Amino acid sequence: MSDTVPETKSIDKKEAKNSTISEELRQVLQFTQDENQKHRDYFQMLYKWTAGSLTIIVVVIGALVAFVGWHTIDDIRKQAQAATDEEIRNIRKQSHDTLIQQTNQIQQQISTRLNDEFANPVIRETVKNAARDQTDSALLPIITGEVRSQVAIGVKSEQGNVKQALLAEVHDSVEQLKPTINKRVDETVAKSVQTSVSSQVDSQITPKIRILEENAELSGLINKAQADDAQAFDRLVVLATNPQSNPQYRQTAFDVVRSVIIGHSGPIRATRKFKDQKTQDEEIALLTSPDIFVRLTALDSLPDSYWKDHLDQLYAMMTTDNSLNIRSASYFRFCSISHYEADPLDNYQANQWWLNHRKDFVK
């Protein structure tokens, strides 16, 4: 009833505040209020009935428990223990079966994986190398020791036979090697004799032969220089002026060079002319003739007017021609044109003078 009073008051307040609500709406609101009250009454009655029923059931269950007593509780405990033990056994069996099944699957997977990995050539090569290294480091000393021991035992047992076979083999080998040994002995003796002879030749004979060769070379140079060979004369000049030359040969070469220069320094010399008339161009061409007398005749036949314009050519003939006579004749022509004064065939002085005065003649 406490719930319905506020609602009634509320309706009354609304009716008081709003006198304009229609009669029909007031009836609907009143009907709704009545129905709500009936529902509350019904639920209150149902709650009381349910509480009473539960009380009766609890009393009955308590009586049954008191009647049955502790025997029922002990039986329940035993049954629960037995059920628990059975469940544990079942769980253990299932776990064991599952473990075996999973172990087999893992082993199968490992075997398959290993087979796949060992199919890889890189893995196979790695395993091979590892096995070889392990064999070398671990098994090889054992194998070597065992083989050495077995060989020692075998050699000891066969020592007598081995000695006899060795002596026989050595005897046969020496017999077969006799020709080679004799050859080696002969070669060694011959080599020793040859070494001794070579030593004596190098120390005694070779120096004398070298002296003879140098004497023969010097004699040849002297003969060639006196026979108008300008190249031999140049070599004598080098020999006479080289401090490293043999002093005896150097003095001889100097004397010969001075004699040749004096022989070509006469103030009077006969000039040569061609018997048949030649043009100047023909005479110029004959300056390179291999015949010494043709070159000499061409040198004398060309006028001073030509040589004044070709002093370089005349200087070259004076210092480099293969004939001492041509060098000497060129020297006299060169001196008459350039007024150079020095001993003929003295290339050193001529080079120095021409180096300083060439600009005065060659424009």
Structure, described:
The structure is a single chain. Helix 6 crosses helix 7 and helix 11 runs antiparallel to helix 13. Among the domains are: 63 residues; 97 residues, no CATH class. With 363 residues, it is mostly helical. It is elongated, with a radius of gyration of 72 Å. The chain starts with a helix and ends with a helix.
Short description:
The chain is mainly alpha-helical and 363 residues long. The chain is 84% helix and 0% strand. It starts with a helix and ends with a helix.
List the helices and strands and how they pair.
Blueprint: H1 4-17, H2 23-68, H3 70-118, H4 121-157, H5 159-226, H6 230-241, H7 247-263, H8 280-285, H9 292-301, H10 304-309, H11 311-320, H12 324-338, H13 347-361
Please write the string of helix (H) and strand (E) elements: HHHHHHHHHHHHH
Strand content: under 5%
- The end-to-end distance, rounded to whole angstroms, is 159 Å
Which secondary-structure class do the elements indicate? Answer: mainly alpha
Rg, nearest Å: 72 Å
Core attributes:
363 residues; mainly alpha; 13 helices; 84% helix
